[in-house]
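Every protein is a chain of amino acids, and every chain bends into a shape of its own. The protein below has been through that process, and both of its lines are reproduced in full.
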Amino acid sequence: YIAKYSPSSLAVIEKPNSKGVACDYKENGIDLLSGKCLRGLPTFNNSIIEPLSALEIKNKCLGAATSFELTSNIDADSLRWNFGDPSSSSNSSTAYSPSHLYTDTGWYYIEAILSYPTLKDTIVDSLYISWVPIIDLGEDLELCQWETHTLTLPDEGALYTWQDASSGNIYVIQEEGKYKVTAEVNGCFATDSVLATYTKMPTIDLGPDTLVCNNEIVILKPEITNGVLKQWQDGSRPAEYEAKYSGTYWAEAENGICIARDTFNLIYLIFLPDLDLGSDTTFCAGDSIILSID
């Protein structure tokens, strides 16, 4: 190729190994389109200064190693990295695909210096190391029939996505199943799940409220299903309870998870009516007598 000052094309010798006119010289061999020759052609291999095709950075989350990779169409003689993290014990590397564990969140400015036989190329970039959300839904749940439970996560800027694709930091459990949430902050993820199981409520029945005379004895015998007696209103635990006074009595049944209660109201009459039908009387058949109560 031959460059001449000002023309918009390059001259070409098609057969440089042939002498004379046999070399097939062409004055306008390559059209430079809108360009022009000014100072001639480069005196070195132009491919050595072509830009790098890509700098790839993976994992920008605190607590996990961030990886770097430079890809190019040519190989450098050497490569040196500066990760922009001076508080780290290993802030540099000469590996072609290094990794670095950043010490804190925030912006970092990295530098990669590639050395070639005739020049050096410096690549500068930046990245933000983000905090990783910490979520904890707690232990698996054992709930009572008809009970609800609210899961609440910190409202700290994380994006929460639940197993049913709903979002938000609050979720109300209303039925048995596995509940899972994923938290995301700037591409950093954390996941947790909890299992909710439901137990059927026990039942307990002390019978209907009662009105009795003061000389009667009332024994309460609770009827319980799906559980056992937990306690009476005074904290005692006899299978049967003698109600001696007017008032409200209650008992609770439990099955290890759920507690049910029933209440019994008792009224004792504090006196008996004084009845007097008079003296005994003899009368003839066919006669009648009227009894009255004063």
In short: The mean pLDDT is 87. The chain is about 0% helix and 45% strand. The longest strand covers residues 188-199.
